Structures are given as structure tokens and as C-alpha cells.
Amino acid sequence: MSSHGDPIPMISRACGPLSGTADVPGDKSISHRSLILGALAVGETTIEGLLEGQDVLDTAAAMRAFGAEVTDHGGKSWSVRGVGVGGFAEPDQVIDCGNSGTGVRLIMGAMATAPISATFSGDASLNGRPMARVTDPLALFGAQAVGRAGGRLPMTIVGSQMPVPVRYHVPVPSAQVKSAVLLAGLNVPGKTVVIEAEATRDHTERMLAGFGAEIAVEDTEEGRQITLTGQPELVPQHIVVPRDPSSAAFPVCAALIVPGSDVLVPGIGLNPTRAGLFTTLREMGADLTYENTREEGGEPVADLRARFSPDLKGIEVPPARAASMIDEYPVLSVVASYAQGQTVMRGVRELRVKESDRIDAMATGLRANGIKVEDGEDWWTVTGRGHGNVQGGATCQSHLDHRIAMSFLILGMAAQSPVRVDDGGPIATSFPIFETLMADLGAQVSRANG
Ligand code: S3P
């Protein structure tokens, strides 16, 4: 089943060169944070380039339910009239976060230190994902969580009446957990400290500083330590959301594997905590260049140019790079299928608790399409067949996971036989224009009903 409706079977087949410009949508991580911090500021925040994917629309609806005024002005301009730190109202309805782990975990953090309760739910994928990683640290602030067995949604969070500051070592490399603790720390007197052993995406820290919070980041022996001073008055901002590197990954990777391609993907956020895929692709021999490198709204940005790359080779991806490309392993495994030799991906246990078990979902679908894949709890390897030799021909399950659906559709773009996915519906959570954007470049991707 699709997250918000009937399944949408899709198919992609080998095509001629991809060419042109791919204007991918706004960054999903930054879009969620713009709405949530806008809702916690005093006054009106304006947002340009917001991703209008279902995940972000669900967060917009949630912010309304907590009392913020969120307005879509059309043309991707949005505004949020915030209620101030600690000003969230108690929602009178269940907060449906759809497919979005980022949405639910960040919002739980943002409300956990206000004297209100809220009940959260989602689709079958989200309701199966672990929430204890967030509710454990929120309990240290004094919040209570009552959910299903194993810490699953639906779940009610009872916010703390008298929150106390927390010092927390994040036990898994997760920006969602880090961000939930920081957002909870906003409404707490005193300093909340979060320590992460490995740096994860830092959009929350950057944006908190932009909204005027006192936040300090230092490298210590224990890791990256973030100290937030609670109860600031957040000052509304004008935010320009950079385009999403995780969405750019799809046209970029398609261009690398489809013979003769030359695609420009402009205005992509290249925050170092996000850009690991592009480094990896270049190490594999990809013809991928950064043009017009610049800074926009506090984030590094460049235009990416990707061309067909005839000599891709498998590599060992450094595990230390995993956090900076965690959402890109599925599409990397597709490029690896077209490379010569083995690509080794280690230190990627977190892939098993995303919108789906991404190692299992990709391994199963790639094998069905004739690719050799081996996997263990926190690693997997893909043995590439080289250009022209990927068989294809199978129907793959997307498991309610947008990135799995898009990855298999990219696989089909250079395979000997078409590749189908059982449900492309979840693509709308992060990249609603994927089908038209890829078709405009010359891809043969479509709904498979007919
Ligand atoms: C995200 C963090 C990552 C990532 C997700 C977006 C965020 O999840 O996979 O797509 O915006 O903070 P984890 O925090 O679980 O690693």
C-alpha cells in the first residue's frame, strides 16, 4: 500500500542519453526544521523553496495543530506565525506524521518540555520504527511516553511540567535524536548538552543559531559537543531552503549510468554532513563536477554536472563517511551494480531502521535483477556487472520507502529489461516531481497500470 492511497505500480526502461537541467525540490531536512523553528519563534518567519512533499506537509499540519499559523502563499513561498518557545497549545487531534521519522521525532522533542500532551501516529512504515531512541532522552527532561510494545507509534507524549536540563550522549549516529534533544532543550532553564561520537547533519544547530539561540559547538575527546542555552526568544527569519542533495542523487546517478548523458543539477546544498555520496561517486570514477560553488543562507551550494561515466569501479566506502550519505546507500548500490568490481559498505546498521530495512529491500530487489549482493547486520557488498550487463526484468517492492522506489526506477534506466516497482506512491513524500523531472531529462519512467 502506498502511504496515502492505493499502490501506484511504476516501470522504467533503458533510454537514450539523459540531458538538460534537473531542478530538484527543496531540502527535506531543512524544510521540516524551518516549519518547526518558525512555529517556536515570536512573529512571522517566511520560507522560500520549501519542499512541498507529503512528509513536510504533514509537519506543516502538525505545527498548525500546536497553534502556529502556517500559510502556503503559492509559488513555494510559505509563512509561519510562531507561538514562541514554550507556547505550543495542546492539539485536540492525533498528530499524523505520515511516513516521516524526521517529522515525528523532531516534533516530539519540540513539545516534550511544554506542559501539554500529544498523541502521534503514522503510516505502517512509521508505526513500525523505533521511537525509544527519542523517548529515552526525553524522559530525562521529565517527559513521559506511552506507546505500543517496543516503543512504537501510536504513542502519547506527556510533556514535562518542570523540565530540567539534560546532558546526553547520543548512542546512535542520528541527527533526528540529536535534534529532538536540542528542540526539547529550548524550553528548559539552563544549558542542555548533546554529545555525538560522529558528526551527523547539523542543520538544527545552524538554524537555531540563525534564529538567535545561544548555541556552542566544540570538538571534545568524547565527540562533537553541542551546548544550548534554554528559553531564548527565537527571532523570526527569512529562510531560503537549498535544493536537496538526497534528491539530486537520483538524476546524478541516472546520468552516470545512462550512456551519453550530461545533466546539470543546479543549486544543491553541499553541507559536508550531507555530501558524502558525491565524494564516493568521484572515488568510483564518476564524471561529476561542482560548478559555481557558493554560499547561500549559511549553507554551501553548487551546481552539479554529471556525465555518463564509462569506467566506474567498485570501492570500499569509508565507514566514517556513513552519516554524511546515510540516505544515499540505496542509490549508491544501483551505481555499484553498473561498476566493475565490488563495492563494500560497512558501518551502516542504521539503514535497517529507516522507512524500510534498506539493506534488505535493496539486496532482495538487486538480486532479483541479477546482481550479486551479500549482507550482514551492519554491512553489505554489491558486485557490479559493468555497463550493459545489468539484467533487470524484476518487480521490486518499495516497502513504503520513497528512496527504495526511486533507486529501483534508476536501476531500470540502463538495464537490459525494464524494472518495475510495486508502489511508487511513497515517492511523493520527498520528491513529488520525480517522474516528470526524470521524463523531461529523457528517461522512460511511468506508471505501469496500462
Ligand atoms: C534526518 C536524519 C537521518 C536521515 C533522515 C533525515 C534529519 O535520520 O536518514 O532522512 O533530517 O534529521 P537519522 O537521524 O535516523 O539518522
TrEMBL record:
Phosphoenolpyruvate binds at residues 28, 101, 129, 176, 358, 403. One of its GO terms (cellular component) is cytoplasm. Signal peptide: none annotated. Pfam families: EPSP_synthase. GO terms for molecular function: 3-phosphoshikimate 1-carboxyvinyltransferase activity. 3-phosphoshikimate binds at residues 28-29, 33, 174, 176, 327, 354. Residues 16-436 form the Enolpyruvate transferase domain. InterPro entries: Enolpyruvate_Tfrase_dom (IPR001986), Enolpyruvate_Tfrase_sf (IPR036968), EPSP_synthase (IPR006264), EPSP_synthase_CS (IPR023193), RNA3'P_cycl/enolpyr_Trfase_a/b (IPR013792). It is found in: Cytoplasm. Its EC number is 2.5.1.19. Monomer. NCBIfam families: aroA. Belongs to the EPSP synthase family. HAMAP family: EPSP_synth (MF_00210). This is 3-phosphoshikimate 1-carboxyvinyltransferase. It comes from Sulfitobacter aestuariivivens. The lineage of its organism: Bacteria, Pseudomonadati, Pseudomonadota, Alphaproteobacteria, Rhodobacterales. The gene is aroA.
